[in-house]
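Milestone M4 deliverable, item 7.
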Amino acid sequence: MPVRRIMMRAFGCPEQLTFETVDHAPPVGPEQLLVDVEACGINYLDIYQRSGTYKVPLPYIPGFEGVGRIRQVGEAAGVFKAGQRIGWINVPGSYASQIVIPAAQAIPVPDQFTTAQALMFQSLTAQFLVSEYRDIRLKDRVLVHSAAGGVGLLLVQWCKHLGAWVVGTTSSDAKAATARAAGADAVINYGRNYEFLEELKSLTGGQGVDLAFDGVGAAT
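Output delivered:
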């Protein structure tokens, strides 16, 4: 069965990505699954790899998360079966109509989940951030940078669910409205001024916050 895929043979702009068709999918090893890809996620990591900010060996098929249905099961791939819907992250080559993935990285996905719900990179990133550093306690003050982004919106909602007071930063008024709609108690637009610290001190009575999540980096 022909496999359609996006190939990157040089670093640079999106025009470096080319559409290709090959005659068949790679062979399936004993602990692997061949999957018909329903959808793949497009993330900033893909852009960094395509531009050359993060070096990858070329030629390269971008994409590292997706959702789809199993077409073929390796003989030692455990409990999985053909036709089952699964999701995955950290599997390079997901910009393709079919992909071979390690069974150990396959996550069963209920059919009632939408495609957006089944793509897990952002939600697992948020889960890692919320659980890795310390427990979020009732009335904690939490700062979420880039609060209108994919991970940021999840962090705002998750921290509010756990009882925290949440202040977000965004780069525009429109994004600030999005963060407020997700539950942020206050929003600082650092697009006007990167020196947001004085406003943060004012919002917290000079106390600052108990925990800060920063996915922006140099800008903040």
